[in-house]
């Protein structure tokens, strides 16, 4: 049986979703008509959904407030050319944390992604020896970065590589013919910013496992399915959080009465908090605001297009990295779910242009990338569908890497705020930041800490 909070509706879709989740724990919902709950969760992305499920399992009253019309946040499955495609997280590390296990336990199908990526240069796949050279350069770059941060020092990641001592004779170094490609891969293509604008400490500590799992229906659709039975208010943007002593009051735009909560899990993106889109009374501690400003958004945008007949000769869901050249760097995911859709992920300046102008900027960028790397293929692309995360006021970027010198700031995000606010989201984990699996784990962890306020769970 499902009851909803005031303002929520129990329609047929919700009922079916709840019924299909019959094997899942019955969520402990807020009393209809009441404005007090044990936990308010703000933000319906992976972190918020995971937190809500954890609180529901503990049979505490709660509500998940999502500003937009749907759940999933930066995991969003769109329709492009009549086909489903993820224009945010398109996969995740299945063995990293609990997301994969939660999906399987909920009866959601998962499929493996091809391991590794294919490397192309000048229109064709490189030889085996070039793969070895690339891998060695990548390994050397990681070693140089670790050496540069010894003793807790932090510099720009580019500086860490530039100032690395020359490698011992016979050992590969982080320079050489693949250095620029490695720099693009580690910087813009993974973090949305160049190595010159990234903290070596933050990057070296990042230990995100490669994505090896996806959903055949889309990762965004998977998120919606995992949130299907939670007690959620959509189109409910939180505007103000007030510390009222025994409770925190959470104000939602368009709702006259604030919701009072004994604990708050705050699962909105870091750039949204840094921009002051939610007001706090009293204001957030200065050191937290400083830390949020130390991890400004990196930009990634995705561009989907159709290529019939597999002209690039790719396996389903294969990722292609090309050798750095004069054009804008991008990572290609080919033949999404085995179909005709391909997705290019652009970063940094190109991503900002796409965020600002949409398809008007995305189409020429995609065509230029194809012309430079698979000459002739560009003639088949006359229409694209593009993400615009950087323009979305509820998201404001792709992920949140630290600025040079600021890598140590991330540890602040696990501190409890005003005794009752717990931060969750992909920017929170010190090592697994910037990933869907990391966001999921951080949501569960924040909910666990909130529940301990009530004496639930281990101290
Ligand atoms: C282009 C792109 C590609 C990516 N690819 C991958 C990938 O392949 N693998 C991977 O692991 N990760 C990937 N990521 C990263 C991954 O998508 C994120 O790390 C993850 O989705 C973040 O989840 P989250 O819950 O922390 O935040 P979000 O998913 O951003 O959720 C935050 C939610 O808060 C809501 N919100 C904002 N303001 C308010 C408010 N005032 N009141 C209420 N709600 C509010 C938002 O609407 C949103 O739904 C990618 C990201 C992008 C942008």
From TrEMBL:
Coiled coil: none annotated. It is an enzyme of class 1 (oxidoreductase). Residues 1-30 form the signal peptide. Keywords: Auxin biosynthesis, Oxidoreductase, Signal. Residues 216-450 form the Amine oxidase domain. Its EC number is 1.13.12.3. InterPro entries: Amino_oxidase (IPR002937), FAD/NAD-bd_sf (IPR036188), Flavin_amine_oxidase (IPR001613), Flavin_monoamine_oxidase (IPR050281), TAT_signal (IPR006311). It holds the Pfam family NAD_binding_8. The keyword Iron does not apply. It catalyses: L-tryptophan + O2 = indole-3-acetamide + CO2 + H2O. It comes from the Bacteria. Its cofactor is FAD. SUPFAM superfamilies: FAD/NAD(P)-binding domain (SSF51905). Pathway: Plant hormone metabolism; auxin biosynthesis. Belongs to the tryptophan 2-monooxygenase family. This is Tryptophan 2-monooxygenase. It comes from Ancylobacter polymorphus.
């Amino acid at each position: 049986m499902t009851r909803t909070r005031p303002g929520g509706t129990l329609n047929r879709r919700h009922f079916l979703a709840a019924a299909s989740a019959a094997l899942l724990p019955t969520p402990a919902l807020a009393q209809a008509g009441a404005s007090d709950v044990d936990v308010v969760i703000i933000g319906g992305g992976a972190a918020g959904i995971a937190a809500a499920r954890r609180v529901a399992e503990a049979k505490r009253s709660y509500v998940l407030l999502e500003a937009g019309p749907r759940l999933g946040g930066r995991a969003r499955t769109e329709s492009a050319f009549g086909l489903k495609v993820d224009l945010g997280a398109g996969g995740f590390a299945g063995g990293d944390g609990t997301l994969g296990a939660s999906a399987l336990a909920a009866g959601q199908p998962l499929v493996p992604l091809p391991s590794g990526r294919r490397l192309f240069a000048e229109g064709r796949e490189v030889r085996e020896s070039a793969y070895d050279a690339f891998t060695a350069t990548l390994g050397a770059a990681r070693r140089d970065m670790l050496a540069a941060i010894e003793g807790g020092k932090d510099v720009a990641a580019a500086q860490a590589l530039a100032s690395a001592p020359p490698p011992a004779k016979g050992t590969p170094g982080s320079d050489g013919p693949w250095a620029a490609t490695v720099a693009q891969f580690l910087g813009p293509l993974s973090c949305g910013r160049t190595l010159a604008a990234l903290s070596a400490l933050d990057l070296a500590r990042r230990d995100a496992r490669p994505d090896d799992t996806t959903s055949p229906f889309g990762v965004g659709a998977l998120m919606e399915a995992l949130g299907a039975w939670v007690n959620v208010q959509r189109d409910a943007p939180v505007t103000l959080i007030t510390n009222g002593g025994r409770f925190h009051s959470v104000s939602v735009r368009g709702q006259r009465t604030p919701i009072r909560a004994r604990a708050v899990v705050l699962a909105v993106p870091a750039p949204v908090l840094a921009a002051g889109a939610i007001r706090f009374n009293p204001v957030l501690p200065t050191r937290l605001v400083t830390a949020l400003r130390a991890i400004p958004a990196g930009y990634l945008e995705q561009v989907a297009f159709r290529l019939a007949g597999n002209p690039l000769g790719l396996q389903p869901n294969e990722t292609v990295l090309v050798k750095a050249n004069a054009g804008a760097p991008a990572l290609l995911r080919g033949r999404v779910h085995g179909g005709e859709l391909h997705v290019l992920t652009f970063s940094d300046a190109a991503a900002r242009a796409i965020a600002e102008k949409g398809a008007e900027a995305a189409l020429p960028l995609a065509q230029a990338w194809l012309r430079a790397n698979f000459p002739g293929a560009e003639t088949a692309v006359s229409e694209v569908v593009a993400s615009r995360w950087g323009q979305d006021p509820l998201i404001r970027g792709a992920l949140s890497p630290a600025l040079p010198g600021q890598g140590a700031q991330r540890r602040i995000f696990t501190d409890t705020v005003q005794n009752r606010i717990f931060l969750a989201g992909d920017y929170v984990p010190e090592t697994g930041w910037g990933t869907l699996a990391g966001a999921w784990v951080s949501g569960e962890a924040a909910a666990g800490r909130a529940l301990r306020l009530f004496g639930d769970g281990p101290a």
